[in-house]
Amino acid sequence: MDLGILATILDSALRLSIPLLAACLAGLWSERSGVVDIGLEGKMLVAAAAAAAAAYAFGSAWVGLLFGILASIAFALIHGFASISQRGNQIVSGVAINMLAAGLTAIVGNAWYGQGGRTPPLEGDQRFGDFVFGHSVLVYVTLLAVPVTWFVLGRTRFGLRLRAVGENPAAVDTAGISVAGLRYSAVVIGGILCGIGGTYLSVAQAAGFLPNMTAGRGFIALAALIFAKWRAWPALGACFLFGLLDAIANQLQGFSLPGIGEIPVQAIQALPYLMTVILLAGVIGKAIPPRAAGVPYVKER
Amino acid sequence: MTLPMPSSRGNRNQSGVRQGTMPMTITKFGLALAGLAFSATAAFAQQAAFKPAIVYDLGGKFDKSFNEGVYTGAEKFKKDTGTEYRDFEPQNDAQREQALRRFARDGFSPIVAVGFSQETALKKVAEEFPNTKFAIIDAVVEKPNVQSVVFKEHEGSFLVGLLAAKASKSGKVGFVGGMDIPLIRKFACGYVQGVKYANKDAEVFQNMTGTTGAAWNDPVKGGELAKGQISRGADVVYHAAGGTGIGVMRATVDAGKLGIGVDSNQNGLHPGKMLTSMVKRVDVATYNAFDQAKKNTFKAGVSVLGLAEDGVAWALDDNNKSLITADMKAAADKAAADIKSGAIKVHDYMSDSKCPM
C-alpha cells in the first residue's frame, strides 16, 4: 500500500469520524451530568433534516446549521423535560426521541417536497464547501469541541459542578446549586453538538437529506463513548478509530492481499462491528459510567 | 339491530350479562363471515375492472433512478389515458406483502411490483388472488397471472463501459453498486466487459455499498466509495445504487470527474458532467403492463428486454452531447449492432454467478 492510498484512507477516516465525534461528545456532556442519552441518533437525524431544509430554503449553509442546531436543541429539551423535570425513564425517553425523529423527518419531508422524504439537492452556497485541507469548516469546529470539552469539564467551576451532578447530585444540591439547572444546560450543550453532527451529514458530507441517513451513527457514537470511558480525548481517539475502520472497509473492497487473494466484501464490511465487539469486550478493561447516570434526582425532604 | 341487552344497570346480574353477550358475539362473527364472503364475490366481480396500482421498492418513488423510471411510465399512462392509479412506497421489507395484498383485496388490477425484492411476497399474493393481474419488474414469478419483466442489464452496461473506457484519460474507471446481489453484479460484469473490450489494459475498481436494503439509501457512504476510487485514479464512475447513487454522482462531479447514471436518464442530474446513463426502460415496461391490461391483451409470462428490444440503451441528449465524440458514438453504435447480431456475446453474470473477466 503506497503513501497516496494511506493519505486517502486517513482523509476518509476523518470525514467519517466527525459525525461520530459530535454525537459522542454530546453523549459525554449529557451522561456526565447524569442524563443517559440514547437519543443521539434521533437528534442528529432531526438536525440533518432541519439543516438541509433550511439551507435549501434560505440558500445558505450557515442558516442551515442554525436551524439544525435549533431543531436538535428542541428535541434535547423534550428529552430533558421527560427525564429531568418529570423524572421519567431516560432510556424510554431516548428511544422515543429516536422513533419520533425517524418518522417525523420522513413525513414532514414528504409533505413539503413530495420526494419520498428527501430534500431537493443542495448546490453551491447551500452546502459547506472545503475550508482548509479539503475539509469543511464543521470538521474543525467539531475537532475544536474536544479540547473545549476537556477544559470546561475538567478545569472550570461549571464543569466540575456538572460532573459532580453526575456522580452525587445530593451533595451538589446541599451546596445550594440547582441540579436541574446543571442537567438542563448539559442536555442543551449535547443538543448543540448533535446539531453540528447532523448538519455535517446532510449539508457538508452529502448534498441534501434522505430518510434515515444517520444509519446508526448515533449508536456507534454511544459505543465509542463507553470505549472512551466518558472522557474527551479518548473520545476523539475512539471515534477516529471507528472512522478509520469504516474507511479501511470502504477502501479494501476489491483489494487483493498477497497470499490470501481477494477478501470477500461481507468480511470487510463486518470489520468495524467485529472490532467494536472485540474492543468493548476485551481491550478496554472496566468502563465505569458516572455514578448517578440514568437516575432521576429526587430531592429528599 | 335488536340484541338482548340488559336494559338498565338495575337488572344487570351475572347471568343476564352472559346471556346478553353470547348472541352478540355470534352475530358479530356472522357479520364478519358475511363480510368475507362479500369481499370474495367483490373480487370476482371486479376482475374485469381496470384499476392500476404500483408498489415501489425501498429506494422510493423519487430516487431519480430505478423507481422513478416506473413513476415516469405510470405518469405518462395517466396523462395519455386519464386513468388514475394508486401507489405505495414501502418503508421496510414487511410492508411489501401487506401492500400487495391490500391492493389486490381492494380490487386493484393490474398491480405492478417494482424490484427483485418483491419476488417472494408476490409469489404468495399472486396465489391468493388468481384473478388479479400482476406484473413484476426485475424478477421472475412463474404464475399464470403474473407478467415478469427482466432486462439484459449486462448489454446496456457493456455499452456504457465501452464509452467510459473511451472517455477515460487515466485508463482507470470505477463502479459503485448498491446492495451486493447477483443483479448488481450483472451490471458490474457487463460494465467490466465493455471497458476491457474498448481498452484491454484498463483497470476497473468495483465497490458495493452494503449487504442490506439500507445500501440503496446511503449517499454518504456512496460518496466515500466514489472518492476512494477517484483517489486511486478513476476518472469515470458508473453507479447502480439507487438513492446511494446520488451521493456517488455528487462526489464524482465535485472532483471534476465524469459520472454515469443508471436506470433512468440521469444526464440532467449534473448537466455536462455526466458522461451518459444506462437507461433501463422500466417506464415502458410499466406503461405496457397498464396498457395491455386496459386493452385486455395482458399476457402472463416472462419477457426479457435487451438491446434488440430497446429495453436497455445508453442515453444521448443535450446534456451530454459535448462529452460524446463522434468516434465514441460510432464505437458504441457498432458494438450495439454487434450485440444484437450476436457477434459480441456479453456474459450474463446471473447465468452462472461468475464473471469471466
From TrEMBL, chain A:
Subcellular location: Cell membrane
Keywords: Cell membrane, Membrane, Transmembrane, Transmembrane helix
Name of this chain's protein: Nucleoside ABC transporter membrane protein
A cellular component annotation (GO) from this entry: plasma membrane
Segment forming the signal sequence: none
Sequence intervals crossing the membrane: 12-30, 42-59, 91-113, 133-153, 184-203, 209-228, 235-253, 265-284
Molecular function terms from GO: transmembrane transporter activity
Pfam families per the UniProt record, alphabetical: BPD_transp_2
Superkingdom of the organism of origin: Bacteria
Record-linked InterPro entries: ABC_transp_permease
Main location: membrane
Record keyword Oxidoreductase present: no
Membrane disposition: Multi-pass membrane protein
TrEMBL record, chain B:
Subcellular location: Cell membrane
Compositionally biased region (Polar residues): 8-20
Membrane-related topology note: Lipid-anchor
Keywords: Cell membrane, Lipoprotein, Membrane, Signal
GO CC, any one term: plasma membrane
Domain of life assignment: Bacteria
Lipoprotein listed as a keyword: yes
Record bears the keyword Signal: yes
Main location: membrane
Region (Disordered): 1-20
Ranges where the ABC transporter substrate-binding protein PnrA-like domain occurs: 57-336
Signal peptide bounds: 1-45
One Pfam entry name: Bmp
Family: Belongs to the BMP lipoprotein family.
Xref: PANTHER family: ABC TRANSPORTER GUANOSINE-BINDING PROTEIN NUPN, TRANSCRIPTIONAL ACTIVATOR PROTEIN MED
UniProt protein name: Nucleoside-binding protein
